[in-house]
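Quick start: what a row looks like.
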Amino acid sequence: MKVNIPVRMKNPWFWVGVGSVAITAIGVDPQTFTSWSAVWMGIKGVLSNPVQLCTMCLAVLSVFIDPTTAGVSDSEKALTYDAPRKDSHED
């Protein structure tokens, strides 16, 4: 599996996706995390629950996979990028 992770990490939308998917996968209720100690208890709860941990890992993995390529690897072109590609659209 070849994925250009450093480029993905430079894209803020990647982090939005990872955070959203992880929060959804573990079934977080926003009312639960009212303090940092509650956040830490939630993290420990996920780490101690194999089903939640597996679901979260698979959900985060789905953010890494490029759906425009076959399999789980990036295209050869995408592997050469140093930063997220910015498409220019001509109207």
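That is the whole record. The chain has a mean pLDDT of 80. The two ends are 37 Å apart (CA to CA).
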